Amino acid sequence: MTDPILPSSAPAVDSTTEGASPQDAAQLDGDFETVHEDRLWRDDGWTARVIKNEDDEGWAVAMIKDGEAEPALVGPWTMGRNKKDPKPLDTAAFNTLVKTASEVLRRHEQQLRAQLHKAVRVASADGNDELDITLDIVPDEDEPYALLTALNAYGEQLAQVQVAPNFKLSKASASAWVENEFRRPG
Question: What range does the domain containing 96 cover?
Fold first, then answer.
């Protein structure tokens, strides 16, 4: 199997129940029955759907986690023996696709966590201890913000202030906050 193609380049998947097949409508409504068909395989919280790749003459497979409208993974699918129709889905292929799609979601979650959580270690104001200073961004649609938190060596919270979501956490900004007795940075 080749590298996964993420949803941005994926063929369009209709997320409405209007004009959807009974299986599609059931999935969007939350009814997830097991299906094992040549081009549709639904099991274990995932749906694999073999679809015509409109960009070329080949086929693609979309992996959708139950309850989600968009695929977690879309990638090329193997042609069958007649070089015209897609190869049918089977248990081994489905299990491999689930593993790959789960890994894509896990990496996406790790990347999002890394973007929303930062941490640095600095000396306390008296220089006798080390403090962990964290910045956790809360991506609220209306009013995003971030929480700047100081933790001692035992993980106990010493201070916390709300800051702008674009606050730049660095050793210098963390040290300045500690030296300013944890007052909200300007």
Answer: 7-114
25 shares its domain with 107: yes
In a shared domain, residues 103 and 15: yes
Point out the domain boundary residue: 66, 85, 114: 114
pTM for this predicted structure: 0.59
**Model pLDDT, residue 141:** 87
**Mean model confidence pLDDT for the chain:** 85
Q: SS3 string of the chain?
A: CCCCECHHHCCCCCCCCCCCCHHHHHHHHCCCCCEECCCEEEECCEEEEEEECCCCCCEEEEEEECCCCCCCEEEEECECCCCCCECCCCHHHHHHHHHHHHHHHHHHHHHHHHHHEEEEEEECCCCCCEEEEEEEEECCCCCCEEEEEEECCCCCEEEEEEECCCCCCCHHHHHHHHHCCCCCCC
